[in-house]
Specification:
Layout (H helix, E strand, L loop, with lengths): L1 E2 L4 E2 L2 E2 L11 H10 L4 E6 L2 H14 L20 H6 L2 H14 L4 E6 L1 H6 L3 H11 L5 E5 L7 H15 L10 E5 L9 H14 L3 E3 L7 H6 L6 E5 L5 H11 L3 E4 L5 H15 L4 H19 L3 H7 L4 E6 L1 H13 L4 E7 L5 H10 L11 E4 L3 H7 L7 E4 L4 H8 L2 E4 L16 H13 L7
Parallel strand pairs: 1-13, 4-5, 5-6, 7-8, 7-9, 9-10, 11-12, 11-14, 12-13, 14-15
Antiparallel strand pairs: 2-3
Helix pairs in contact: 1-2, 1-7, 4-6, 7-10, 11-12, 11-18, 12-18
Length: 449
C-alpha cells in the first residue's frame, strides 16, 4: 500500500492534475440539486460554470443530460467583468424573481460560485430579503465557491444548507430512515443504486427516504429530521451531514464503506440495519434466504465461462472509494478473482483511509491482497498500472484507450467519468447487482467455448 508523491519533472514539482476524477464544489451541489426532482438550481456564477458542468459533471456521469434544470436552461446570473467591479447582487435579485415566476419548482437552491465569493457579494442577505417578501417560497443558499472543495464537498454543502435553512424539528417516525453518501452523477450508477437500496429497505419493513432520485423534493427534504436513523453508504461522503443531523435533531447514524454488491455484502448490510432498527430477525433471514438462493442459482449459468476461460484472473480497479471497495470485495470474495492494485480516486480524508485500507485487506477472502494507492491524476494512475499482471481493468472511460494497447487488459467502465457508457438505471447494488457486474465483466470476453 502507498500514497503517490507529487510528480517531479526536470527538477520541477508539478501541482497540476491531468484529467481529474471530480469537479469543484459548485458541481457537486449543482448535480445534487438536479438529482432531487423538484429542486431548481439557480447558479450565481459565470455562464461557463453551468455549461462546463453540463459537459463535465453530467455527461461524465454516464452521458446523462442535465434535464430541464441542469442543461442550457439552468437559471444563471452569468456574471461578467461589470459585475466583478460593481457586484452582482442586483442581478441575482432579478434572477430569483424571474425564476420563481417562470419555473414551477418545489425548492429553489441558489448555488454561488467563485466570482461572488471573490468580489464579496452578500448572497445570504439577498436570500433573506427575498424570504421576507415571499415567506411561502422555499429557497436556500448553497455557498460553493470552486476553491471550497470538490464535487464530494459540494454534496455535503448542499445538505448543510438544507439543514440550516429549511429543516425544523419533527416527531420521530418509527421505521423512517434517511440514506446519504450517494452523489448524483459523481457516482455514475446513482439512480439505480438509490432505487435498489430503497427497495431493499422497504422489503424489511422500513420507510426509506433516499431524497436523491426521488420526486416530492420538498416533502422528502422536510421529513429528514423525523427519521429514526440515518444510513450513510460511504466511508466518508455524507458523514458531515449525518453528524450535523445527529447534533441538531438527535438522529443517530450508521455507515457502510459503500453500496453493497452481491449476496455477502447485501446480507451483512441487512443484518446490521435490522439489528440497529429492531427489525425482526425472521424477516431479515427470510429475505436473505430467498435472494441468496436466487443469486447463487443464477450464478451457476456462467460457471463454464468462469471456470474454463478465465479462472482466478488478476484485476485492477481505478474508482472512487465507494465503488472500489464494493467492487473489489465482490470480485474477490464471491468470484474468486485476485486483486492486483486498487487506486482510489476521490481523495478521501486521512481518517477515512484507515477504514478503506482495512476493507481492502482484512475484508478480503483472498490469497492475494492488492496494492492500495490514493491518486487522482490520470498520468500517475497510468504509470501505477505498468508492469503488472492484471487481466481486467475496472476503471473510468479515461482508461479505455490504454487498457488494451498498453496493458493487454480487458476494460470495463465502472467509475467517473463515464463517456463510453450510457447509464440510466443500470447498477451493481444488492443481491442481483452482483450478477449484473458479472454480466458486464464476462461480456468483455465471452464467446464460443
Amino acid at each position: 500500500m502507498g500514497i503517490s508523491e507529487p510528480l517531479e519533472t526536470n527538477n520541477v514539482i508539478s501541482g497540476a492534475i491531468e484529467a481529474p476524477r471530480y469537479s469543484c464544489a459548485l458541481a457537486g451541489a449543482y448535480s445534487t440539486a438536479v438529482g432531487i426532482f423538484g429542486v431548481v438550481p439557480i447558479l450565481h456564477s459565470g455562464a461557463g460554470c453551468g455549461i462546463g458542468q453540463l459537459f463535465g459533471q453530467f455527461y461524465g456521469g454516464g452521458q446523462n443530460a442535465g434535464g430541464p434544470y441542469g442543461g442550457t436552461s439552468t437559471p444563471c446570473s452569468s456574471l461578467v467583468e461589470e459585475h466583478v467591479i460593481f457586484g452582482g447582487e442586483k442581478k441575482l435579485e432579478a434572477l430569483i424573481e424571474s425564476t420563481v415566476e417562470l419555473i414551477n419548482g418545489e425548492v429553489f437552491a441558489v448555488i454561488s460560485g467563485c466570482v461572488p465569493s471573490l468580489i464579496g457579494d452578500d448572497v445570504g442577505a439577498v436570500i433573506r430579503r427575498y424570504k421576507e417578501k415571499n415567506p411561502e417560497v422555499p429557497i436556500i443558499h448553497v455557498n460553493t465557491s470552486g476553491f471550497a472543495g470538490t464535487s464530494y464537498d459540494g454534496y455535503e454543502y448542499f445538505f448543510d444548507a438544507v439543514i440550516d435553512q429549511l429543516l425544523e424539528k419533527a416527531p420521530k417516525e418509527k421505521g423512517l430512515v434517511n440514506v446519504f453518501g450517494i452523489v448524483p452523477s459523481q457516482h455514475i450508477f446513482w439512480k439505480g443504486e438509490a432505487r435498489e437500496i430503497k427497495t431493499l429497505l422497504e422489503r424489511i419493513g422500513l420507510k426509506a427516504n433516499l431524497i436523491v432520485g426521488e420526486f416530492d423534493a420538498l416533502e422528502n427534504l422536510k421529513k429528514i429530521p423525523a427519521a429514526e436513523y440515518n444510513i450513510v453508504l460511504s466511508s466518508w461522503i455524507g458523514h458531515k451531514t449525518a453528524e450535523k443531523l445527529e447534533e441538531k435533531f438527535d438522529t443517530p447514524y450508521i455507515s457502510f464503506p459503500g453500496v453493497p454488491i452481491g449476496p455477502k455484502q447485501t446480507s451483512e448490510f441487512l443484518r446490521v440495519i435490522g439489528e440497529r432498527l429492531d427489525v425482526s430477525a425472521d424477516v431479515i433471514e427470510d429475505l436473505i434466504a430467498k435472494e441468496e438462493r436466487r443469486a447463487y442459482r443464477f450464478a451457476e449459468f456462467v460457471g463454464d465461462i468462469l471456470l474454463i476461460t478465465r479462472p482466478h484472473p488478476y484485476f485492477a480497479v481505478v474508482a472512487d472509494s465507494n465503488s472500489a471497495v464494493s467492487i473489489t470485495k465482490y470480485l474477490a470474495n464471491e468470484m474468486g478473482y485476485l486483486p492486483d492494485i486498487v487506486q482510489i480516486t476521490d481523495n478521501p480524508p486521512e481518517e477515512a483511509r484507515k477504514l478503506i485500507n482495512e476493507e481492502l485487506t482484512t475484508g478480503l477472502e483472498t490469497p492475494a491482497w492488492p496494492e492500495i494507492i490514493y491518486e487522482v491524476d490520470a498520468y500517475r494512475i497510468r504509470e501505477n498500472l505498468k508492469d503488472r499482471n492484471f487481466l481486467f481493468l475496472l476503471a473510468s472511460s479515461l482508461e479505455t484507450p490504454i487498457s488494451g494497447p498498453e496493458f493487454n487488459a480487458l476494460h470495463l467502465t465502472v467509475s467517473f467519468p463515464s463517456y463510453n457508457r450510457v447509464i440510466l438505471e443500470h447498477n451493481y447494488a444488492g443481491f442481483s447487482g452482483g450478477l449484473t457486474l458479472v454480466e458486464d465483466v464476462m461480456s468483455t470476453y465471452a464467446g464460443p467455448l
